[in-house]
Structures are given as C-alpha cells and as structure tokens.
Amino acid sequence: MTEEAEAGGTRAGHVALVGRPNVGKSTLLNALVGEKLSIVTPKAQTTRETVTGILTTDRAQAIFVDTPGLLEPTYALQRAMQESALEVLADADIVLLLLDGTRPEDVPAASVVEVLRRKTSPMIVLINKIDAATSDAVEALRAWSRTELGLEPREVSAAAGTGIDALRADLEACLPESPFYYPADDMAVQPVRFFVAELIRETIFETYEQEVPYASIARVEEFREGEDPVYIRATIYVERESQKPILIGKGGAGIRELGRRSREKIEAFIGRPVYLDLWIKALPNWRTKLATLRYLGYRLPPSLDAEVQGPKGRRARSRRRAQEDTRGD
Questions:
Q1: How far, in Å, CA of 71 to CA of 24, rounded?
Q2: How far apart are CA 121 and CA 139, in angstroms?
Q3: 212-241 average pLDDT score
Q4: What is d(CA 119, CA 210) in angstroms, rounded to the nearest whole number?
Q5: Residue by residue, what is the 3-state secondary structure of 28-56?
Q6: What's residue 314's pLDDT?
C-alpha cells in the first residue's frame, strides 16, 4: 500500500460495467485495467460470470466488475447471469452503462432502465465502438440516453483506446473516499484456476461454430503448480453426447488443436510452461438446470438458490433460523 493510502485521503469503490450482450464490456475492463482479464470474442453472451479487475493508483483504487450482458432470460443459465448482473448493479458505487455505437436499436429493456433510474450512485453512459459507428447512430443513442436517463453520454472506443485515459481520471474523482480494499499490486479477485478455465472457453468460442461454444463450459479439476511444467487437468462439459465428437474432431485432431491453442494462452497468462490435460464429458442440458449450475460452481443469487433448495431446503432453513432465534433469547 502506498504512503498516501496509509495516511488516508484515498478513494476506493466498485464500478459496475453493464449493458446488453456484446457491447464491449469485457474489452473495456481490459482496457481500463491494462491487462487481459475478461475473455473477448465476436460472439454475443461470451461473459457468463462476473469478472473483477482492480486498478490502483497512488490516490485511488477502482474495482471494475464486468457483468454478463443484460437480456431477457429464457433458460436457467441466462436467469443466473441476469440476476448476477443486477446484483452487481445494485451494489456498485459507480455504474458504467455501455451502449453499442454500431447497434443503436439494441438498448437496455424497459425493466432494466427502470432499475437504472432508481440508482442514486453516479452513472456514466458510454457510447462504445465510436471508431466504427456512424454519426446518425451516435446521435440516436445520445437522444435515447437523454430521454430515458437524463444523462449526456460520452464516446469511447475500448478496442482502440479512445477516451479511456480521460474516463479513468473521471472515475477516480467520482469514487467515494475510502481506504483501499485490496493490496495495491492485486489486479484480480478470482483465482488463477478461474482464468485458466475462461481461456479454454474463449478458445472454444474462437474455434467452433453454431451451438457448441454456448453448450460448453470448462472447469479446472487439478492444478499442480509445483510441477514443471505446471500440470493442469480440465474438463469441458457439453450438453449432449453428439457434441463430444465435434470437439474431439477426426482422429482427435480437434481436441489436440484446442489444447495447443489454449495451452499457449495459459502459458502467456501465468508465465510458465504448462502441460494441459483436456477431457470432454456430457452433462445433459446443464444450462437449463439450476442444481447443475450450482454443481458446476456458478454462484446463484438468493432468489434462484431458493428454487434449487426446493420446499425441503426452505423448511430446513426456516428451522435453522428458528433455532438460532431461540438460542439468541
């Protein structure tokens, strides 16, 4: 921690990056932190879980939280993603709402706008991808922001770095006065295993088409950093048995190439040689089952976790609360 942080007079807080799918939230997080933490692909709905990146200066610590895209959920995974994004939004000290300058018609739904209107903490509206946007599209989004939120938006390009330095400076000034939450040299909250799994999933999105990337999830089962090379065993779960041969490829060529490309990314991330041991398993319809999502490690918001527990779980929790109340007397 810096001398100034120890002496007080510092600022710190959580900054939520929210918006529709594929508006560039992950690219913006990486640009603000100066490190690739969130995976980025051209496909929508790449981000499934919140990713936290930390930027610390002498005077301030901004804790950026990249959230899943705000959409109208149709199955369990999307519901968990939506609830997670709204939970981050509710707790944020500053909200960055991203709009896609190339898609002026793709704005947050009315229900999300209502949540944004109720927020009392500072909010900044960003029109992203201005390097590819037309003037008419930008003006349409400006009008939407003024009408719906009463805010004048800013223009940035997360990919090109346009407007990022000025945005960092303004965010620092908006953060509440607070001591730092994390050591000054921390850049992320999630463990290395999380980012390894995300890099594998990013490679799946880059390599395969249609439904396979969305039906796949990677989980690290074993991570032996004491070995040289580092031994990592990871399982890729798919929804149907018929999707396994697509990933494996003819004669195993697909899984070998997936492993090679993933390993190169992981080695660059951790700075050490890696032996990547990939396995593929079918976990039927995992995206639609809340209990399976929890088994896979997704943190379900309380409203969805209660559904997983069912009536028995709710009764058990009620009994525990009653016992605790009795002990408290």
A1: 15
A2: 26
A3: 96
A4: 37
A5: HHHHHHCCCCCCCCCCCCCCCCCEEEEEE
A6: 46
At residue 8 the predicted structure's pLDDT band, cuts being 50, 70 and 90, is low
Q: What one-letter code names the amino acid at 150?
A: G
In this prediction, what percent of the chain has a pLDDT beyond 90?
68
Q: What is the DSSP string of 138-152?
A: HHHHHHHHHHHH---
- The number of beta carbons lying within 10 Å of the beta carbon of residue 169 is 12
Spatial contact of 248 and 254, defined as CB atoms under 8 Å apart: yes
DSSP sequence for 95-145: EEEEEETT-TT----HHHHHHHHH--S-EEEEEE-TTT--HHHHHHHHHHH
Q: What are phi and psi of 142, to 5 degrees?
A: -60, -45
CA–CA dist 249, 227 (Å, integer): 30
Which carries the bigger pLDDT value, residue 319 or residue 200?
A: 200
The phi-psi region of residue 22 (left if phi > 0; otherwise alpha if psi is between -120 and 50; otherwise beta) is left
Is the entire prediction scored with pTM above 0.85?
no
**Residue 131: φ, ψ to 5°:** -70, -20
Cα–Cα distance measured from residue 305 to residue 316, given in angstroms and rounded to the nearest whole number: 14
Residue type present at position 250:
K
Other beta carbons less than 10 A from residue 251's beta carbon: 8
280-310 pLDDT, tens digit per residue, is 999 999 999 988 998 898 877 666 665 655 5
Q: Rounded mean pLDDT of 144-150?
A: 97
Token code pair at residue 173: 């000034």
- Identify the DSSP state of 179: -
How remote is the C-alpha of 7 from its chain's centroid? 33
C-alpha dist (Å) from residue 36 to 32, 198, 282: 10, 11, 30
SS3 60: strand
pLDDT score of 325 more than 80: no
